[in-house]
Amino acid sequence: MAYRETEKVRQRKQEARNRILECAYACVAEGGFRSAQITAVASRAGIATGTIYRYFDSKEELFAEIFRLATQREVDKVAEALAGAGPAAARLEAALRRFADRALRGPVMAWALIAEPVDPRVETERLQYRRAYADLFEKAIKEGIADNSIPAQDARLSSTCLVGAIAESLVGPLSPGHLEMTRNGNGNPQAVTDKSLVDTIIHFCMQGLTGIRR
């Protein structure tokens, strides 16, 4: 008779898998993918290194899933801002501001998602991440064209330009070297409270989108 897992066994395995994901996520949030070694994840989870490979075929598979989990959280926050009330242009501005604010409040994870050198499998997830934002922005731009808060334009092209502009403008401020130089005496990155940086990025994006000088 073929062995069949009981519901209790399946639940225990899922809990173990989730625990590994939680610990891996925490490691990435603290030091990026480069610092999230399998040994560190295992130690944090209180398991043997080999146990991780019972649930994930490789480190790349584990990291790709962490990337998906982290990016989905960020995409959901932007989608939430875009779903608010008011003209599409105002909602889009709020969404872009949320993107930048959240990145600067969690610079290590944001750097890992936006620019940290990663394995090809994770880089594939990064392309999906950027495409998810572009899809949201494209929809908002089309809504803005319809409600006259945004001039007529190629919504798809403009959406990809927005993703590129906001992501690239954050690469420098989020980079490990920049954060290290701007740490204060308490070891906290000063850049995370730089409102003028966010304002400049958002003004640039919205002026390019609407043609209105701010």
Automatic annotation (TrEMBL):
Residue spans binding DNA: 37-56
Keywords, alphabetical: DNA-binding
Any Pfam family matching the protein: TetR_N
Residue span(s) of domain HTH tetR-type: 14-74
SUPFAM superfamilies: Homeodomain-like, Tetracyclin repressor-like, C-terminal domain
MF GO annotations: DNA-binding transcription factor activity; transcription cis-regulatory region binding
Name the UniProt record assigns to this protein: TetR family transcriptional regulator
